[in-house]
Amino acid sequence: MKTRRKFIKETAAGAMAAMSIPKVLYEFPAGAGQKKIKLEKNNVILFQGDSITDAGRNKQNESFNNPSSLGSGYAFLATAALLESFPSLNLKVYNRGISGNKVFQLAERWDKDCLDLKPDVLSILIGVNDIWHTLNGQYNGTVEKYRNDYIALLERTMAALPSVKLIICEPFAVPGVKAVDDRWYPEFYEYQKSAREIAERFGAIFVPFQKVFDEAQNRAPGSYWTGDGVHPSLPGAQLMAKAWLKTVL
Amino acid sequence: MKTRRKFIKETAAGAMAAMSIPKVLYEFPAGAGQKKIKLEKNNVILFQGDSITDAGRNKQNESFNNPSSLGSGYAFLATAALLESFPSLNLKVYNRGISGNKVFQLAERWDKDCLDLKPDVLSILIGVNDIWHTLNGQYNGTVEKYRNDYIALLERTMAALPSVKLIICEPFAVPGVKAVDDRWYPEFYEYQKSAREIAERFGAIFVPFQKVFDEAQNRAPGSYWTGDGVHPSLPGAQLMAKAWLKTVL
User: Which of these, A152, A160, A237, A247, lies nearest to A204 by C-alpha position?
Assistant: First the structure.
């Protein structure tokens, strides 16, 4: 049994720990030295992207902070941590990722699925389909098209939401696992370089997911973190959520 | 803004914390002083219970470590942390919670949904429906029936799986939120007392969820952590996952 004093002490310590949970969820060098985002009361946070962000979310449920509408990927896991860690901020978190999307498909639905939601914090993970669907003949993409479409999308975003806090997530892949073969390289490096340059150009926080998955392979094979080299497994999604929280907050 | 010194200090502290992520996910006094479970290679972990454990899992998908089969509650969130934190253990985590279940309904499906899975670690959260369904006239339960049914279920479990590591989770409710009115008390305290006594009787780890939800109300109103007083919200589920990990590991 605990003394009252000890209980109070631990509770106080716990309270402080709770305030910085996201920062200690995963002490990854990702984002070290980068600026952070200070979440404010009533902030609207939007996760945008492709299937990795979508993660099987229920498209009929467009509400915020809702497991069904958030899917079962990194966006859901990061949201659970955000809502539990910052109960006083009244955060509203949306997921509008859609499987298969490339940058131009984000642009096609951007008014409804981004600008109309007026996010204070916008996190985008896009790019893997821009190369993948080109390699498998479903799309005719190039690095230049990816870069130009992405820049145009963000210029349009900043014009409509000048004070939005931007987070650009690095498209990633795990070489040698199923879908990710030699045909991806070195071209995919150019897509990743473009994402990083675009983050710098727009003063966005950059989440280096490739580094996260590269480092994770010191703990388990790539196939443990992603089934097909592109889509994260459950532990892979948790890895992403931790890296996102660590980098952003 | 942070000073460099402060940043280094926090990073170092965080790095140590990262070595034992599950234990520091939430520095809650819950479970302090209790024995812990040491997970071992190839361990099978089973979450059993009612709708709070079920959390909308896809019953057609009976696989392990799978977001669809794990639902979107504390079992899913705890599993994501377990699989990411212990990649070398080849853990297999199942969720077999079913909405509306009372203890006797666990017993009816126990061979298929527990014993046949041969869990090394078995976590059970059951009891809220035993009183709730009695209060709303769907069931004719008593504390004695809850206690006796629960003891019989665990004796049957220990006979079939003598080396299983047991985790008994405390049934909880948030008084004053929707479904949880004065009719619950003081009787519900007896259900909670029975769960704690049963945990002691079987040498199980006891997860004090009531304390977790009571303490959380120092940070936000009860309605933030549970919509109806019984089912956790997303932040409530994260709260549970953290408390479970902190208490068990």
Answer: A247
Q: By the CB < 8 Å criterion, does B89 face chain A?
A: no
**Which of B67, B63, B24, B68 is closest to B44 using CA atoms?**
B63
Q: What is the pLDDT of residues B218-243, one digit of tens each?
A: 999 999 999 999 999 999 999 999 99
Q: Residue A5 above 50 pLDDT?
A: no
Q: Which residue in B19, B26, B53, B84 has the most chain A C-beta atoms within 10 A of its own C-beta, making it the best mutation to test that interface? A: B84
CB atoms A87 and B13 under 8 Å? no
Q: Give the chain B residue nearest A68 (alpha carbons).
A: B72
Is the Cβ–Cβ distance between B70 and B57 less than 8 Å? yes
Residue A150 is encoded by which pair of tokens?
A: 């992405």
Q: How many domains does chain B have?
A: 1
Best CA proximity match to A141, nearest among A114, A171, A167 = A171
pLDDT band at A137 (very low <50, low <70, confident <90, very high): very high
Q: Are the beta carbons of B56 and A72 separated by less than 8 Å?
A: no
A89: nearest CA in chain B?
Answer: B220
DSSP string, B119-136: -SEEEEE--HHHHHHHHT
C-alpha distances in angstroms, B80 versus A73, A205, A233, A236? Answer: 10, 25, 9, 9
Domain range holding B25?
A: 4-248
CATH of the domain at B187: 3.40.50.1110
Q: What is the pTM of this model?
A: 0.88
ipTM for the assembly? 0.87
Cβ separation of B72 and A77 shorter than 8 Å?
no
Closest CA to B17 of A20, A169, A26: A26
Does A244 lie at the interface with B, CB-CB under 8 angstroms? no
Report d(CA A37, CA A166) in Å as an integer.
9
Q: Please indicate if any CB of chain B lies within 8 Å of the CB of A19.
A: no
